[in-house]
Amino acid sequence: MSVLDLIRPDLRQFSGYLSARKQNSGGAVWLNANEAALPQAFDNQQLNRYPEPQPQALKAALCDYYAVSADQLLVTRGSDEAIDLLVRALCVPGQDSIVIQSPTFGMYAVCAKLHACQVIDSPLSEGDERFDWDIPAMIEAVKRNGSKMLFLCSPANPTGQSLAPEALERLLLGLQDQCLVVIDEAYGEYSRNASAIALLERSPHLAVLKTLSKAHALAGARIGSVIADASLIAVLKACQAPYPISKPSAELAVQAFAPGNLSRSHQAIRECLAERAILADALQALPMVRAVFASDANFLLVRFNEAEAIGRYLLERGIVVRAMAQYPAIADCLRISIGTPSENKALLQTLNSYHRASHA
Ligand SMILES: Cc1ncc(COP(=O)(O)O)c(C=O)c1O
After folding, report:
1. Among the atoms of ligand 1, which is closest to the Cα of residue 211?
2. Distance from the CA of 105 to the center of ligand 1, in angstroms?
3. Pairing of strands 180-184, 206-211
4. Residues contacting 58, CB < 8 A, separation 6+
5. DSSP readout, 179-192?
6. Tens digit of each residue's pLDDT (9 = 90 or more) over 5-39
7. Residue whose CA is at the smallest distance from ligand 1 atom 13
8. H or E stretch including 118?
9. Which residues are registered as beta bridge partners of 253?
10. pLDDT tens, 60-80?
11. In 3D, which of 183, 247, 243 has the Cα closest to residue 221?
12. Which segments within 166-269 are labelled E, that is strand?
């Protein structure tokens, strides 16, 4: 079975929109895209022109960083766009399904629902202050439902754990010739585990999602990547909007890979991990904290007595954390991103003041 067999039958020969930039490049007098002939007076980036569909310099930097070839990577408008493209390219609306493991990142289900596809849940199991995947149950869920795709987020959002390499190997083996396995590594840079990218050669039914939104500190630039077999990348490219990446974003993002900037990002990751350990210990010691879940990412999932009241108390004092009320298994938890040392200190002080006020 080829990965192309998983593509929607009606899209297998689809070549997508032939934009002006795709049809012809080069030349000096550009009269092909109905752009304004002159830029705005305040514009020094020539934004009167459409950007490159796949900005070459950024794409080269991403391929170099993730050690993949140009035909294995598609630059996307954040990994949110990659998730949407995958669902639209593979799933027949009203017929196909995807498998997720709740509680997990909400966009997999949102994209599936917007595309009239069923969402099959093979939930995480909760152990001693950590969640984990049930690999046999996930394989069984795909087979039982003939699902087109399984999304797995590792490190997992919002629960924080990483998938062990042996478990990923078992999953890929069990789903060979069954479905596309999408490993979302949005938080991969914070993890001790190696990226799943290395398994691509042996597993054409694997796709890996990457983003510059987390460890590269560029959430506002909206740059993600989907890395997969070249044949799948070609199909996704045909399904993508003509000019998804804005020129200012592409030019800014490419700077993230300059050696000095990259080493600063790596330093920031180390600092975040050190802060995470300090914050986890401090939270654990608070009387209203019932559990701090093991985390391999830049956030902590924390189970509280009175999570809702604490979330409200923090918000009233200007500290915004993420409520988990929409996930039944962790409705009594808050997800807390690791901030700067002073932000984390402010969080702890406010939690202490909540405790004093509620026991006064
Ligand atoms: C697991 C996961 N995947 C993808 C995304 C979306 O990332 P992007 O900003 O690249 O669209 C997020 C954002 O929070 C996330 O947590």
Report:
1. 10
2. 8
3. parallel
4. 75, 223, 245, 250, 253, 254
5. -EEEEE-TTGGG-S
6. 999 999 988 988 888 878 888 889 999 999 999 99
7. 186
8. strand 118-121
9. none
10. 999 999 999 999 999 999 999
11. 247
12. 180-184, 206-211, 224-228
The rounded distance, in Å, linking the Cα atoms of 109 and 118 is 8
Find the 268 Cα to ligand 1 centroid distance in Å.
19
Share of residues in the chain with pLDDT > 90 (%): 92
Length of the chain equals 360
Per-residue confidence (pLDDT) for residue 254, from 0 to 100: 98
> What is the residue type of 264?
R
Q: Which DSSP category does 51 fall into?
A: P
Given a cut of 90, whether residue 115 has pLDDT beyond it is yes
CA–CA dist 64, 355 (Å, integer) = 50
* CA-proximal residue: ligand 1, atom 12 (nearest): 186
Q: Which residues line ligand 1 (CB under 6 A)?
A: 78-80, 105, 153, 157, 184, 186, 211, 213, 219, 224
User: Residue 228's closest CA among 104, 123, 90?
Assistant: 90
Task: Look at the alpha carbons of 303, 191, 119, 222 in this order and tell me if their dihedral is positive or negative.
Answer: positive
Testing ligand 1's pocket by substitution, the residue of 62, 191, 213, 218 carrying the most ligand atoms inside 8 A of its CB is 213
Dist CA 93 CA 288 (whole Å): 46
Query: How is residue 94 annotated by DSSP?
Result: T
b/e 50-60 (16+ beta carbons within 10 angstroms → b): bbbbbbeebbe
Of 189, 232, 195, 240, the closest CA to residue 78 belongs to 240
